[in-house]
């Protein structure tokens, strides 16, 4: 009886990485466009009729610039969702490969690939931990790419700041753009920076695994 068990083959990662990179670039562009419209709103100044949401369920007619911001915001939200799907699909694949390469269970069980982003407090370190674990499995002893820390630090700034500044309706965000555009722009810049750094993270981890695939 043969007790030898053939380990599972590594899964190709190039296609998933390309999708993730493309999605990150689109997401960064979408958030940059959002920032441009917020600058335009702040420059134009709030109309004399007040904010779009007048209170007590009353809303005034939106200006052309405000209508355009609604469109930019909706497109940005859609692109962000697509980016999350593409990034998680790539992360799931490289995580599986990392398990094959190391021959041991990943540090974080598979539900954390998704739950790690939404569980309060845990979402402050688990996604980065998963990425770091993937890198260690493919390149043991090598230093973690700097892009990982840049990506995660910028993501935390953007997500924590966005949780308060982007709370509520799009009309509420428009009102904030009129009076507090700098704070919104800091969040926007952090998200764009995280998307750019994320591209380098995907490329670095994918390159390590592609070397093993060769």
Key structural traits:
mainly alpha, two-stranded antiparallel sheet, 2 strands
Structural class: mainly alpha
**Largest pleated sheet:** 2 strands, antiparallel
Low-pLDDT stretches:
1-6
Strands of the biggest beta sheet: in what spatial order?
1-2
**Shape from CA axes?**
elongated
Question: Short description, anyone?
Answer:
Helices cover about 70% and strands about 0% of the residues.
Explain this structure to me?
The protein has six helices and two strands, in the order αββααααα. It has 214 residues and is mostly helical. The longest helix is centred in the last third of the chain and has 44 residues, at 170-213. The protein has a two-stranded antiparallel ribbon. Residues 1-6 have low confidence and may be disordered. The chain has one domain. It has helices spanning 14-44, 64-102, 112-115, 126-138, 146-165, 170-213, and strands at residues 53-55, 58-59. β1 and β2 form a beta hairpin. α1 (14-44) runs antiparallel to α2, α1 (14-44) packs antiparallel against α6 (170-213) and α5 packs antiparallel against α6 (170-213).
């Amino acid at each position: 009886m043969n007790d030898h068990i053939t380990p599972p083959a590594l899964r190709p990662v190039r296609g998933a990485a390309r999708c993730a990179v493309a999605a990150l670039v689109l997401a960064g562009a979408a958030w940059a466009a959002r920032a441009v419209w917020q600058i335009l709103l702040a420059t134009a100044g709030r109309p004399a009729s007040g904010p779009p949401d007048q209170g007590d369920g009353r809303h005034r007619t939106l200006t052309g610039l405000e209508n355009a911001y609604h469109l930019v915001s909706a497109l940005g939200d859609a692109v962000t969702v697509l980016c999350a799907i593409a990034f998680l699909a790539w992360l799931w694949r490289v995580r599986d490969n990392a398990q094959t390469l190391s021959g041991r269970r990943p540090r974080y069980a598979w539900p954390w690939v998704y739950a790690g982003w939404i569980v309060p407090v845990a979402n402050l370190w688990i996604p980065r931990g998963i990425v770091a674990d993937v890198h260690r499995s493919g390149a043991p002893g090598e230093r973690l790419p700097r892009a990982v820390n840049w990506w995660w630090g910028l993501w935390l700034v953007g997500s924590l700041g966005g949780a308060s500044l982007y709370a509520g309706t799009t009309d509420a965000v428009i009102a904030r753009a009129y009076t507090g555009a700098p704070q919104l722009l800091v969040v926007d810049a952090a998200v764009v920076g995280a998307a750019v750094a994320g591209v380098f993270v995907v490329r670095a981890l994918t390159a390590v695994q592609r070397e093993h695939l060769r």
